[in-house]
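thread: overnight batch results

M.L. [08:02]
morning all. the overnight job finished for the chain we discussed friday. pasting input first so we're all looking at the same thing
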Amino acid sequence: MRKITIAIDGFSSTGKSTLAKQLAKELEYVYVDTGAMYRAVAYFAMQNKFIGVDFFDKSALINALSKIQLEFKFNTELGFAEMYLNSENVEKQIRTIEVSNFVSKVAEVSEVRAKLVEQQQEMGKNKAIVMDGRDIGTVVFPNAELKIFMTASAETRAQRRFDELQQKGDNVSYEDVLKNVVERDYIDTHREDSPLVIADDAIEIDNSYLNRKEQFEAVLELVNDALKTI
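M.L. [08:03]
and the structure it wrote out:
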């Protein structure tokens, strides 16, 4: 059976994870949410007082990396894998605006990226995987058979994220969410180690005006084209 690696990169709140989950389910591939991995490390840093609004003890986090064990466990009721940090399900905790405010700063740390990239590459060594993040097509799987880069306006992405948080009962303002989106964009695209860039052979999709069904159908066609070439 033909198997490929699908790398989905892009800005925050562009629906990368939603698309990746859809594709993995359709193709019966493994899905890996790398953003959840970085969020889990950020949550660990918060819990251990390594990072806060006006401080970030990078050395303390780096020295504690050996104490971080990350694992995805499939939830049959939800239909996708959830993030576990040191044997604790942290799926809900890592999706808060508080974690969002720190995750890009944590992801800037080279030692953190090296640890997680190594794990991600191991997960995808047998192909048949859909992975989304910021550097999947450029660093983690530069030889992926299909690379997608997703984008949308900051305002559109902020509204989507705001609606999602509201549905979860989080008390946040649209202005705070928009500020977070803009700040994360800047950090992600300007960090020294593995900045967010479009791979030369990636296909860019602006989904500002696409619904989930339209987006999925368009990308599934790209997947089928890629499968024909191997």
